Amino acid sequence: MKQFSANLPQKAYTAQQVRDNEALAAEQSGTTLSQLMQRAGSAVAAYVQSYCQSQELDGAYTVVLCGKGNNAGDGYIAAKLLKEVGLRVVVWSLFDPSLLKGDAQDAFKAFVDFGGDVTRKCPLDLDEAAITIDAVFGGGFHGQLPEAVQSAFDSIENASTYKVSVDIPSGVNGTTSEVSDNAFQADVTVTFIALKQGMLTGQARGCCGQILFAGLGVAKAFSKLVAGTSSFSSEVQHFRSIPVRAYDSYKHQLGHVLLIGGGKGMAGAIRLAAEACLRSGAGLVSVATHPDNVGAVLQGRYELMVHGVETAPHLHALLEKATIVVLGPGLGLDAWAKELFFACSEVTCPLVIDADGLTLLAQNPQALKATVVTPHLGEAKRLLDKNDVEYVHHRFELAEKVYQTTKAITVLKGPGTIIQGYERRNINRSGTPAMASAGMGDVLSGIIAALLAQQVPTFAAVCLAVYIHGLAAEEAAKDGALGLVASDLFSHIRRILG
Ligand SMILES: NC(=O)C1=CN([C@@H]2O[C@H](COP(=O)(O)OP(=O)(O)OC[C@H]3O[C@@H](n4cnc5c(N)ncnc54)[C@H](O)[C@@H]3O)[C@@H](O)[C@H]2O)[C@@H](O)CC1
Ligand SMILES: [K+]
Questions:
Q1: pTM value?
Q2: Residue 29: exposed, middle, or buried by beta-carbon count in 10 A (0-12, 13-18, 19+)?
Q3: Residue 172 CA to ligand 2 centre (angstroms)
Q4: 236-497 placed in CATH 3.40.1190.20
Q5: 11-228 architecture in CATH?
Q6: Would the annotation count 417 as a binding residue?
Q7: How confident is the model over 106-133, as pLDDT tens digits?
Q8: Which residue from 28, 46, 113, 253 has the highest number of Cβ atoms inside 10 Å of its Cβ?
Q9: Which residues belong to any copy of the YjeF C-terminal domain (predicted)?
Q10: What ipTM was predicted for this assembly?
Q11: Terminal alpha carbon distance of the chain
């Protein structure tokens, strides 16, 4: 049996679901909990060994940080196995080992009996440790890390040691994705039994590094037993839902998107959204923008039909022709913006609202019926009632509340973007911190609109657009520049899929 794999499952669960059901899943698989812990420690040791081999680190120093629960049990087992194969291993216990119970206590004893060193102080200059394993907290963690743990992690963060987390990086809440100050920043996390949704989104995603999966021989039984909370996917399968273009197809068959935005002096965002829309395959793309911006938006992208719009009546004729409308990029919040916003109340085709359009929607929740909203964290909070926001503690709750409030498929942007629709939630594998690059957020609504224009079903269109957008953001991150590469990636992926 392969002990760990980089191929991740498509269902994600809360850490609590895993804790509540692992015993039963083990029982149904004819496995005891202590065997499970043995396999968990063994999977981590196998990974560390493979890393050492690939880096030619013979007899490397490994520090295993241990806590007081079962996560520490996995750590002690890994420590013993690595010592057995000749690595120099020392356990730095951040809690008194007398707190360990049951299988974790047995694992501790076995390590000590084998001659393993356990110390309560930092055992060596951490730069000398080729590898540091984090077995302090796993699925049982919530809240803030104790101060002593934070200061230990602080010293590790600055050391040139390769960091491996056991199950979940300590400091990450595997159910909610809330992250403690000074949470462990792993290069690799070997996670057990099931993917935990809390690891996959927001700041938590960055703490995990690469995620490897170890089913411990009970993953199948677990997934039969428990319904997942989210799917975690690159949604590559959705590419098949894009209709194949007939050789004799023409632009009028491939949708007509109207993008509304770009207030006085703000031509950039709407141009980016419109260009992304065009390059992601929409048949016709029109832009309604402030008259001052027409030249700037059209410049170098002559496929766009750009209209200077002074007042709402100018917009009516354009709205009549549109099959998809995007409202908001660079719209602003002034009287001009508000007039166009309210004019969209007559929209009967799918409506994607982003950016300033969302701020105006927050102020006038009944005015428009959005099909898709694409908020970042701040915009999402604005969309909720003040009292509601107070009781929202994490990204999943936030996405769900926005969905309930707007009844629009909600795309909560950020690393591991959450897409929340009716009874379905997708956490996208892509969606990177490169969103921080100027303009990267602006292109998403354009890509979504283009896919809707091509008759891709709404949820699939959104998942796919977020995927394409994430890849584009990654490219942009590599370049250090705005890689407006959505269409290039799009056609590239289509080619790969044949
Ligand atoms: N149940 C089992 O037998 C198995 C458990 N496994 C491992 O066990 C882990 C879960 O173990 P546990 O449930 O013991 O939990 P942890 O080892 O994650 O946590 C240990 C203890 O820390 C406490 N704690 C939580 N938040 C805290 C905070 N902010 N400050 C201080 N203390 C805090 C908890 O109350 C818990 O008692 C998994 O992540 C996995 O690594 C695996 O070995 C597979 C088998
Ligand atoms: K851990």
A1: 0.93
A2: middle
A3: 9
A4: yes
A5: 3-Layer(aba) Sandwich (3.40)
A6: yes
A7: 999 999 999 999 999 998 888 889 999 9
A8: 46
A9: 234-498
A10: 0.98
A11: 33
C-alpha 62 – ligand 2 centre gap (Å): 15
Mean pLDDT of the chain: 92
Query: Which of 24, 66, 76, 137 has the most ligand 1 atoms within 8 A of CB, as the residue to mutate?
Result: 137
Two tokens, residue 367:
């005015």
- Is residue 125 annotated as involved in ligand binding? no
Q: What is the pLDDT of residues 159-212, one digit of tens each?
A: 999 999 999 999 999 999 999 999 999 999 999 999 999 999 999 999 999 999
Alpha carbon distance 466, 486 (integer Å): 10
Ordered by start, the domain boundaries in the chain are 11-228, 236-497
Task: State both tokens at 428.
Answer: 């996208």
Q: Please name which ligand lies nearest the alpha carbon of 36.
A: 1
Q: How far away, in angstroms, is 182 Cα from ligand 2 center?
A: 13
